[in-house]
Amino acid sequence: MNKRTFLKLFSAALVSRLISPLFAWMPTVKLTNWAGNLEYSAALTPATSIDQARDFVRNHAKLKVLGTRHCFNNIADSMHDLLSLRQMDKVVSLDPQARTVTVESGTAYGQFAPYLHEKGFALHNLASLPHISVAGACTTATHGSGEKNGNLSTAVSAFEFINAAGDVVKLSRNQDGESFRGAVVGLGALGVITKVTLDIQPTFMMKQYVYENLPLDQFKEHFDAIEASAYSVSLFTDWQNKRFSEVWIKSRLEPGHEFPAPKEFYGAKLATKNLHPIAELSAENCTEQLGIPGPWFERLPHFRMGFTPSAGKELQSEFFVPRPNAVEAILAVERLRDQITPYLLISEIRAIAADDLWMSPCYKQDCVAIHFTWKQDWPAVSKLLPVIERELTRFKGRPHWGKLFTISSATLKSIYGKMPEFIELAKKYDPAGKFRNEFLNRNIFE
Ligand SMILES: Cc1cc2nc3c(=O)[nH]c(=O)nc-3n(C[C@H](O)[C@H](O)[C@H](O)COP(=O)(O)OP(=O)(O)OC[C@H]3O[C@@H](n4cnc5c(N)ncnc54)[C@H](O)[C@@H]3O)c2cc1C
After folding, report:
1. Phi–psi pair at 379, nearest 5 degrees
2. Mean pLDDT of 154-179
3. Closest atom, ligand 1, to C-alpha of 192
4. Using the 8-state DSSP alphabet, how is residue 444 labeled?
5. Residue 71 has pLDDT above 70, yes or no
6. Ligand 1 contact, 131 CB (< 6 A)
């Protein structure tokens, strides 16, 4: 999608928003996910208020909520009914003393980030793109990069959702302890999230540099130093030629945090123009590089709001391995290079800090995520995934909940120690499985 098409769709969304109160309860046409690899099985109904969403929950036996449709698997799909809270996208309140912002759950990070910055605040991190909804991102443990940065759900300090009975439930980090920690990465299984309160901090400026061609040998020897070199570090590779084609380094413009940007970084050369992670693609949709200072929300993501992120026509998979296993796991994937590269657009390596959220892939362990952006060839990718997963499960790899994987539910149960408690927690809010779908039944509940 180019900028013009994006704007066309954006204006269409705006028009539909203006007329939506008239048609709020009329099912609309079937939708696909963002990547177009999945057609949702049910019609979508928008809600514009908590009361509308509560009525919908009360009047439907089974449903799922759709966020911004950026998952690559069927975690958001429903055979019955789909509800959208995308029009509920306001900032509810900003509390400078408590250092929190509360937003309606349908908002995308890129929609309220400029407001936060204007008010002097920032989030701790963002994913590679700002286009995704807060509820959709947090419920799937979506992450950015940075060995000291927890995934985006770790910023959630409280949230509200509608349970299966249609009642509003509030959970907070301070008051609900383990239930809260079990519910944040809820995989859409607990109810319809309506509001999310996020931790904020004083706003900060950043610089982003890209280096080209970091040799694999340097990576092996200096992985920890490379990861520790800045606030957020991403390594990109197509697994060929024993090198990482690009290293993206994002640093905060604060004393002690700034990256010195030498001409050479562990054998990689400082880029002299903006680059796309897939070097052949135009960098038009990428955030500014070359050390040009900018606010956190225009440097932490790789892709700019208002443009199509990534490549567009693609599939994605991602696996989190415990940090101590990272180098060996990455080398194991590298040995599969000749099987992987023909179907790959690009891979990305990112570090994420440990957290205490039950269903987060980084529960109680610092992780490194090994990501694959695939060509849209599911027959080939579906054959390749078990080969990669076989390697990565040796290193206790866990799949990203929103991306494509074939790991069995038995394996998932063995690597998510908190799964039995999570199932009990979900049943507390949804005893009859109103919010369960094929994905949840297959991977969690059956
Ligand atoms: C180009 C691209 C880049 C990406 N980059 C990253 C990245 O850098 N890091 C990363 O970790 N992931 C990344 N992802 C994956 C993606 O961000 C996540 O999978 C995220 O869940 C998408 O959010 P969404 O709102 O689009 O979710 P959807 O796909 O719409 O829904 C995901 C889940 O959230 C549930 N849900 C959504 N809204 C609500 C609600 N209000 N109440 C209850 N449940 C709800 C859905 O039912 C479903 O279970 C990327 C995806 C794409 C397409």
Report:
1. -55, -45
2. 98
3. 42
4. I
5. yes
6. no
Which amino acid, one-letter code, is at 95? D
- 103, 139, 315, 405: which to mutate for ligand 1, most atoms within 8 A of CB? 139
What's the average model confidence in pLDDT over 19-25?
Answer: 40
Which residue, among 40, 81, 67, has the nearest Cα to 138 in the 3D structure? 67
Residue 281's contacts (CB-CB under 8 Å, 6 or more residues apart) are: 311
Ligand 1 nearest atom to the CA of residue 35, by list position: 53
For ligand 1, say whether the CB of 127 is within 6 Å of any of its atoms: yes
Sequence-ordered strand ranges (E) for 227-337: 232-237, 243-252, 264-265, 268-270, 294-295, 315-322
Q: Is the CB of 140 within 6 Å of ligand 1?
A: yes
Type of residue numbered 333: V
Structure tokens at 35: 């990547």
pLDDT category at 30 given cuts 50, 70, 90 is low
At position 4, the amino acid (one-letter code) is R
63 vs 25: which has the higher pLDDT: 63
Is the shortest distance between the CB of 304 and ligand 1 below 6 Å? Answer: no
Separation of alpha carbons 27 and 12, rounded Å? 17
For 84, how many CA atoms within 13 A lie in the half-sphere containing its CB? Answer: 25
Return the DSSP state at 147.
Answer: T
Q: From the centroid of its chain, how far is CA 291?
A: 25
Q: Given pLDDT bands bounded at 50, 70 and 90, which one contains residue 247?
A: very high
Q: Is the CB of 68 under 6 A from ligand 1?
A: yes
| Smallest CA separation from ligand 1 atom 51, residue | 70
